[in-house]
User: What shape does this take?
Amino acid sequence: GDSVTQMEGPVTLSEEAFLTINCTYTATGYPSLFWYVQYPGEGLQLLLKATKADDKGSNKGFEATYRKETTSFHLEKGSVQVSDSAVYFCAFWMDSSYKLIFGSGTRLLVRP
Amino acid sequence: DTGVSQNPRHKITKRGQNVTFRCDPISEHNRLYWYRQTLGQGPEFLTYFQNEAQLEKSRLLSDRFSAERPKGSFSTLEIQRTEQGDSAMYLCASSLVSTEAFFGQGTRLTVV
Assistant: This one.
């Protein structure tokens, strides 16, 4: 069935380090892909999206590229900040569908 | 701020009591979704509305759960005869058809 697999956390980095959070998906068709971020005690905020193969979504220094051949949508940031500490969720949905399918989330902790 | 609004933010209830949560979507959005999130997991789809019509409710967790959107604007999610296993974050989201969903801050339910 449709699913999202994310790398397990927590991911602990020092400030200004390079970040990669891996995400792969299983879907019948060509979904739209999303990264959401959740700060402690809060709801989810849309971080970035990509709607077709080879699209690159970007926001706040984060980037992810839609790779159809590897069914992946890895999240990257060149230099993380303490304020980036949060849980990051990869998700997708199909144009024919009505719901987002989420991964289990990856907690990021950035130390000063 | 015209984002998705959820009330209350926190609810503590005794086992066996009924609870009701409210969601006010972004005003021009015609789709409204309810998700449940347990600790350490990604959000799990429960149900959704397009305008006032509830188009998918098979994922509601039991017949103790029900949702309404009486005039195609705000929505309520009710849980009857709460159980400790119902303790979770309940998230509401809204969207236009076939666009990304925007989430509220959630209602955290604790059943004691």
User: Anything to note?
Assistant: Chain B has a mean pLDDT of 92. The CA atoms of residues 21 and 70 of chain B lie 14 Å apart.
